[in-house]
Structure formats: structure tokens, C-alpha cells
Specification:
- It is a single chain.
- This protein is α/β, with parallel strands linked by helices.
- It contains six helices and 13 strands.
- The chain has a single domain, classed as Rossmann fold (3-Layer(aba) Sandwich), CATH 3.40.50.2020.
- Helix 2 crosses helix 3.
- The strands form three sheets. Strands 1, 4, 5, 6, 7, 8, 9, 10 and 11 form a nine-stranded mixed beta sheet that branches.
- The protein binds 1-O-pyrophosphono-5-O-phosphono-alpha-D-ribofuranose (PRP) and uracil.
- The site of uracil has 9 residues, from helix 6.
Length: about 220
């Protein structure tokens, strides 16, 4: 039975904490990802590159402070990232594919892990692992998962982080659908959501259309 098309409930604007990416490089690489002929090695590379590009956008509000640096010419005050308390948290498994790209930009970031799998029949998420770097309440947390379908995995992962004290959370997904993004936004309006591309809808198996198939299987070659 085909699903009824979902009607978005929010405007996707930075004011609503939802940032739909428009950069041509991100769009181009997402199109390559979708292609059924893109093999595991290339797929993994693209997920990492898109992670880096989206991380670049999402971290554009990191605070700066002036520090003293001596150049070969003179000493000057010049801006550097203040604080450096970042945590990148992938939702296992597929989120792992985005970690390298983001930590290439932020090498001092600590890495947490949240294990979630979706029940194949009910599509409900189930947690099987959670380990976050301390002090999580002081860190800017970049939660990553290539796919936001029903939004259940992301929403539950954010709840887990908040229950452990996490406060400043950004969620980055490469492909979302209105239904899933709206759910995450409704459950967690304080969280900034970055979406590489907003796709059309979910099918009867709660897969994203047109999507890219199963992100975890394509990253790890498990299909
Ligand atoms: C996929 C994906 C998300 C989740 C999205 O993971 O990586 O975590 O599904 O679906 P949702 O928005 O409906 O919750 P999956 O459960 O297939 O696990 P895997 O990464 O281990 O393959
Ligand atoms: N998880 C995926 O990997 N792909 C989808 O389309 C939906 C959930």
C-alpha cells in the first residue's frame, strides 16, 4: 500500500534551526552517492567528503578569540577557534562514514559513539551502545548520520545525549525527508539540523525516495 505524501509542518529556515544545504559541490557529490553503480570504495570516499563539506558549513558559527602569533615579519593578534571543546558523535553504523571528513577539519575533537539499529518490521530504533566524551555538557556536539528517514534514530540519539548532559547539539544528515526532519525538529527544536538534500518521501518500508538505498550496507559493503 502506497503511503500518503507527508506535508511539511515547518518552514525550513535557519530561524527554525533547519539548514538545507545548497552548495553545488555537496549537491554534485550526493548525486554520485545515489547512483546504484557507485561502488563501496567510492561511496565511502564520497560520504567522508560530504561530511567534511557539511561540517565546514555547520561549524561556521564556532567562536573565535584573538591570540598572539609571531610571523616571520612581526608579532600580531590573530583569530583562532576559542575553547576547542567539540565532540563528533556518529550514529552507528552509517554515521561512522562521516567522521573522518569532519575530524579532518577539527583534529582536536573527541569522538563519541551511539549504536542504533532500526527494526526491519516496525522501523522503530533500538539503542545498543552509547559512549560520549566528557565533559559532554561543555562540548559542541556534532551528531552525524547520512540518513534521516522516520527521524526515530536521530531523535532518540539526541535524547540520549541530552540525558547525559549534552546541550549544544548540531545534527548533520546527508539525505532527509520532510517527515523525518520535522519529527526531529518537533522533538528537539533547540537542535540545529543540517540537511544535505531534502528528498521526496518514504516508501512503505520507510526507505527514502529517491534516496540511495541502505547507507550502512553501501559504506561497509555488507549487502
Ligand atoms: C539507518 C541510518 C539511520 C537510520 C535512519 O541505520 O543510518 O541511522 O537507518 O532511519 P530512521 O530515520 O527511520 O530512524 P540502520 O538502522 O539501517 O543501521 P545501520 O547503520 O547499522 O545499517
Ligand atoms: N536507512 C537507510 O540507510 N536508508 C534509508 O533510505 C532509510 C533508512
Amino acid at each position: 500500500m502506497a503511503k500518503t505524501k507527508y506535508t511539511p509542518q515547518y518552514e525550513y529556515t535557519p530561524e527554525n534551526n533547519i539548514f538545507i544545504q545548497t552548495h553545488p559541490l555537496i549537491q554534485h557529490k550526493i548525486s554520485l552517492l545515489r547512483d546504484i553503480n557507485t561502488g563501496t570504495n567510492e561511496f565511502r570516499k564520497l560520504v567522508s567528503e560530504i561530511g567534511m563539506l557539511m561540517g565546514f558549513e555547520a561549524l561556521s558559527d564556532l567562536p573565535l578569540e584573538d591570540v598572539q602569533i609571531t610571523t616571520p615579519i612581526e608579532t600580531c593578534m590573530t583569530p583562532m577557534i576559542a575553547g576547542r571543546k567539540l565532540a563528533v558523535v556518529p550514529i552507528l553504523r552509517a554515521g561512522l562514514g562521516m567522521v573522518d571528513g569532519i575530524t579532518a577539519l577539527t583534529p582536536t575533537a573527541k569522538i563519541g559513539h551511539i549504536g542504533m539499529y532500526r527494526d526491519e518490521v516496525t522501523h522503530e530504533p533500538h539503542e545498543y551502545f552509547c559512549k560520549l566524551p566528557k565533559p559532554i555538557e561543555e562540548r559542541t556536539i556534532v551528531l552525524v548520520d547520512p540518513m534521516c528517514a522516520t527521524g526515530g534514530s536521530a531523535s532518540d540519539a539526541i535524547t540520549l545525549i541530552k540525558n547525559r548532559g549534552g546541550r549544544k547539539i548540531k545534527f548533520l544528515c546527508i539525505i532527509g525527508v520532510p517527515e523525518g526532519i520535522d519529527r526531529v525538529h518537533k522533538d528537539h527544536p533547540d537542535v540545529q539540523i543540517y540537511v544535505g538534500h531534502m528528498d521526496r518521501e518514504l516508501n512503505e518500508n520507510a526507505y527514502i525516495c529517491p534516496g540511495l538505498g541502505d547507507a550502512g550496507d553501501r559504506i561497509f559493503g555488507t549487502k
